[in-house]
Design a protein that fits this description.
142 residues; mainly alpha; 2 helices; 91% helix; 0% strand; rod-shaped
């Protein structure tokens, strides 16, 4: 007699859901990392720009305006990247919660499977013992 789990299709679906949730979490973490890398890159370029602008003497008003416009544009981009990074962090936390839920659901079914398997093993052992007792009784009564 072979053990067959009654909720095997549900367990298979839960494993698949957990796998998909892991992939979604990985995508969100990747997005967050890309945004963070871009933000760090822009911040590094801003630092080097500010260091270089201090070294050079400003010659006319057009250069001052151009540098001011550039700084303003970079600061706007930094603000946008910071907002995007915050949104990405929220999405990552949501996906982590979903993954935790999927894991819990899978873990519950695995526990049920272990419990059913234990019951099955006990029942098989009891049946085998009953069979052995019958054989012993028949051989003793002869």
């Amino acid at each position: 007699m072979k053990f067959k789990f009654s909720l095997a299709p549900v367990l298979k679906v839960r494993k698949h859901q957990e796998k998909l949730q892991k992939q979604k979490l990985a995508e969100q973490v990747s997005k967050k990392q890309k945004i963070s890398d871009v933000r760090d890159d822009v911040q590094g370029k801003l630092k080097t720009f500010l260091e270089n602008s201090e070294d050079n003497s400003v010659e006319n008003i057009h250069m001052i305006r151009r540098r001011s416009a550039h700084l303003q544009q970079v600061h706007q981009k930094m603000d946008k990247l910071s907002r995007d990074l915050d949104k990405a962090e929220v999405e990552v936390s949501k996906e982590r919660e979903k993954l935790a839920t999927a894991y819990k659901n899978l873990h519950i079914l695995e526990k049920v499977k272990e419990f059913e398997k234990g019951l099955f093993s006990e029942r098989v052992a009891k049946d085998e013992q009953k069979f052995m007792d019958e054989i012993a009784t028949q051989s003793f009564s002869r």
